[in-house]
Amino acid sequence: MQPPPQSRILVIGADTALAYLIGRYAEQGGYDMATLRAIPSVTEVLALRPAAILFPSIEDLGAAQLLIADLASYDIPVLVCLSNHDQARARELGADHCLSHPLTYASFLAALAAAKAGIP
């Protein structure tokens, strides 16, 4: 059974430790989580109906530029985990929100709330 729309976080990347942490935070926040190691097609993303897409690193975000371009017409926020000095680059690559390391539960929820509200 699929969760209701806007209740799933899609993590795209191979960082299993970070994916585990995000999964714990998602569970605490009432979200479901799906993880894909490889970059999916737009069709695969849309089938998962994510509330947001999260990339564990700026490198993962950079590798997914074709996907980001294809998703531009959909209202799915893109988040990326990174160090503070990479925020300008992350915005250039299509991130709507940045989660700085060390990632905390409060910052995770704040980024999701901002994403839902459409706040850059």
How would you characterize the overall build of this protein?
It is built from six helices and five strands; from the N terminus they run βαβαβααβαβα. It has 120 residues and is an alpha/beta fold. The chain has helices at residues 16-28, 42-48, 58-63, 65-70, 87-92, 105-117; strands at 8-12, 32-36, 52-55, 78-82, 97-100. β1 (8-12), α1 (16-28) and β2 (32-36) form a beta-alpha-beta unit. The mean pLDDT is 89. It has one domain: Rossmann fold. The radius of gyration is 13 Å and the shape is globular.
N-to-C CA distance: 32 Å
Q: Count every beta strand, where a strand is a DSSP E run of 2 or more residues.
A: 5
The percent of residues in helical segments reads: 40-55%
Number of helices: 6
Specify the biggest β-sheet.
5 strands, parallel
Class by alpha and beta content: alpha/beta
CATH architecture: 3-Layer(aba) Sandwich
At the third CATH level, what is the topology name? Answer: Rossmann fold
Structurally, the number of domains stands at: 1
Along the chain, the helix and strand elements come as EHEHEHHEHEH
Task: Map the helices and strands.
Blueprint: E1 8-12, H1 16-28, E2 32-36, H2 42-48, E3 52-55, H3 58-63, H4 65-70, E4 78-82, H5 87-92, E5 97-100, H6 105-117
Parallel strand pairs: 1-2, 1-3, 3-4, 4-5
